[in-house]
């Protein structure tokens, strides 16, 4: 039964009413959605880029995926008993009646794309990385948002503890590169389909003997592991002696986990084994981990991940293994603020042009274009500001150096190059202006194979 397009078109009068109903000045960003505007946006970007730069060093290729997918992908991939799927998804029908959902997480979408494009037919492991927004209808509070940003990775197709250790060490290195120290890495093994069913039964048997309330009992039936994550003190106390997955691992899972720990030791990555760790997504198997920051209050998880060895098959692909993580950029920025290691400069340029008059602009703009080809960020004064206003704009820009062209300089073919840090200035020939300014900025340009070809000394 097809949908009639007419049915789904919003009537013109309704659109008018919606537009009229809200006075222009009263529009606000949706509830629970953080916005990063200058100057904070520079720090947000620096956090995200620093995380991505570390990942880049481990041979990951970037993947850019849709922000919405068929609803069934998440129901099947993330797990129908999870809070994410039952309570937190932004699900809507499009104009043709398809059920679509704003992605609540990245792993299911990556798997869907890998299967659809046969990316798993080449060299394995397939290493993919992504960054962007995810959407969960959670109760907003500090550090818990309805649009959250992650930088994530997925390494697909090889079940090797060395890969687990590399993925975990990579996340740890990314966080340390930002200067963060006040977090801990917790990890455990959730076993696999050979040993988890027996453990699940043992756990259920234990739980069903407890005087649990109706709802908790139901949870014990659907997903008993989640009861171990219950924060209520009385439930905690009752489950203190509950059987733990770590004591029920198959020999293979046990030796896999021990290898991961051994390699982390050799890489000098510090960790705590937390056998009661419960993740909010159902696809995890074997190695599972979380980075927890102590300075963030209740929303302390700054990143998490693990293996998901059955996921690809569940989604219609080959039975390949996978491991990955998602680092929460919003919370990592909060952690950087808390530890006083916020990266990124608020200055929006290094060189600022002060052309006094329209004719001067025509000389100034090619000079700034030349500087940009040398990797320098530039800006200039626009409109018709006087000398005082123009210099105020130069100071506010955060630039290190200003190029000034007034009537005299225009006539003489010169430029005044001013060091904005100490006020010293020098008039030089127009052709020497950019070189002189670069000299003040203190940047030596050289070419190298490295991605950063600009070395500031
Ligand atoms: P997750 O633990 O649900 O894992 O999310 C990863 C990180 O995203 C969390 O540790 C947290 O920092 C951040 N995050 C999650 N929800 C919110 C929120 N409401 N507000 C702010 N930050 C939030 C995943 O999403 C998995 N896909 C990770 C993964 C990849 N596992 C294997 N591969």
Characterize the structure shown.
- With 457 residues, the protein is α+β, with helices and mostly antiparallel strands.
- The chain has helices at 5-8, 12-21, 40-56, 71-78, 83-87, 107-116, 161-177, 196-208, 214-222, 233-238, 251-266, 311-314, 329-339, 358-373, 387-396, 407-412, 433-441, and strands at residues 61-62, 68-70, 91-93, 99-102, 126-135, 147-156, 183-189, 272-273, 285-293, 301-307, 322-328, 351-355, 378-380, 401-405, 414-419, 425-429, 443-445, 454-456.
- An eight-stranded mixed beta sheet has the order 1-5-6-11-10-9-7-8. Strands 13-12-14-15-16 form a five-stranded mixed beta sheet, with helices on both faces.
- The protein is elongated and about 90 Å long.
- The protein starts with a helix and ends with a strand.
- The model is unreliable at 1-7 and 444-457 (pLDDT under 50).
- Bound molecules: histidyl-adenosine monophosphate.
In short, what is this structure?
With 457 residues, the chain is of the alpha+beta class.
Labels describing this entry:
457 residues; 8-stranded mixed sheet; 5-stranded mixed sheet; 21% strand; disordered N terminus; disordered C terminus
DSSP, total strands:
18
End-to-end separation in angstroms reads: 68 Å
Query: What average pLDDT do the residues reach?
Result: 92
Oligomer: single chain
Instruction: Identify every distinct bound molecule in the structure, by name, code or SMILES.
Output: histidyl-adenosine monophosphate
Radius of gyration: 28 Å
Largest sheet: 8 strands, mixed
> What spatial form do the alpha-carbon principal axes imply?
elongated
Strands of the widest sheet, in order across it, are 1-5-6-11-10-9-7-8
Give start-end ranges of low-pLDDT stretches. Answer: 1-7, 444-457
Please indicate the percent range of residues in DSSP E strands (runs of 2 or more).
15-25%
Helix content: 25-40%
List the total number of helices. Answer: 17
In terms of structural class, how would the helical and strand content be classed?
Answer: alpha+beta
């Amino acid at each position: 039964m097809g949908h009639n397009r007419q049915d789904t078109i919003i009537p013109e009068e309704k659109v008018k009413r919606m537009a009229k109903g809200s006075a222009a000045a009263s529009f606000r960003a949706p509830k629970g959605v953080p916005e990063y505007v200058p100057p904070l946006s520079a720090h947000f970007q620096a956090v995200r880029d620093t995380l991505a730069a570390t990942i880049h060093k481990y041979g990951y290729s970037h993947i850019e995926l849709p922000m919405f997918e068929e609803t069934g992908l998440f129901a099947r991939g993330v797990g129908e008993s999870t809070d994410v799927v039952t309570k937190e998804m932004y699900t809507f029908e499009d104009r043709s009646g398809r059920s679509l959902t704003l992605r609540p997480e990245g792993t299911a979408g990556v798997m869907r794309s890998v299967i659809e494009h046969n990316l798993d037919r080449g060299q394995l492991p397939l290493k993919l990385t992504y960054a962007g927004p995810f959407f969960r209808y959670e109760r907003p509070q500090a550090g818990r948002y309805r649009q959250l940003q992650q930088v994530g990775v997925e390494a697909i197709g090889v079940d090797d503890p060395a890969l687990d250790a590399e993925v975990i060490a990579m996340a740890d290195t990314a966080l340390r590169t930002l200067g963060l120290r006040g977090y801990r890495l917790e990890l455990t093994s959730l076993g696999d389909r050979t040993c988890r069913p027996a453990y699940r039964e043992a756990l259920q048997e234990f739980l069903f003997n407890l005087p649990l309330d109706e709802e908790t009992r139901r949870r014990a039936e659907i997903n008993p592991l989640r009861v171990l994550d219950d924060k209520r003190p009385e439930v905690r106390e009752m489950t203190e002696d509950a059987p733990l997955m770590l004591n029920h691992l198959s020999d293979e899972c046990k030796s896999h986990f021990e290898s991961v720990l051994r390699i982390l030791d050799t890489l000098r990555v510090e960790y705590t084994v937390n056998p009661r760790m419960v993740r909010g997504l159902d696809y995890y198997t074997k190695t599972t981990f979380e980075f927890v920051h102590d300075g963030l209050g209740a929303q302390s998880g700054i990143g998490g991940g693990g293996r998901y060895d059955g996921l690809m098959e569940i989604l219609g692909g080959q039975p390949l293994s996978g491991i990955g993580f998602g680092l929460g950029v919003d919370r990592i920025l909060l952690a950087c603020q808390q530890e006083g290691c916020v990266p990124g400069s608020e200055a929006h340029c290094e060189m600022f042009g002060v052309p006094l008059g329209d004719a001067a602009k025509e000389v100034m703009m090619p000079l700034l274009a030349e500087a940009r080809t040398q990797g320098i960020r530039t800006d200039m004064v626009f409109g018709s500001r006087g000398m005082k206003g123009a210099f105020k704009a130069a100071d506010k820009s955060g630039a290190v150096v200003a190029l000034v062209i007034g009537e005299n300089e225009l006539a003489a073919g010169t430029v005044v190059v001013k060091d904005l840090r100490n006020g010293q200035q020098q008039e030089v020939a127009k052709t020497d202006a950019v070189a002189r300014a670069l000299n003040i900025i203190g940047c030596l340009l050289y070419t190298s194979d490295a991605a950063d070809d600009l070395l500031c000394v």
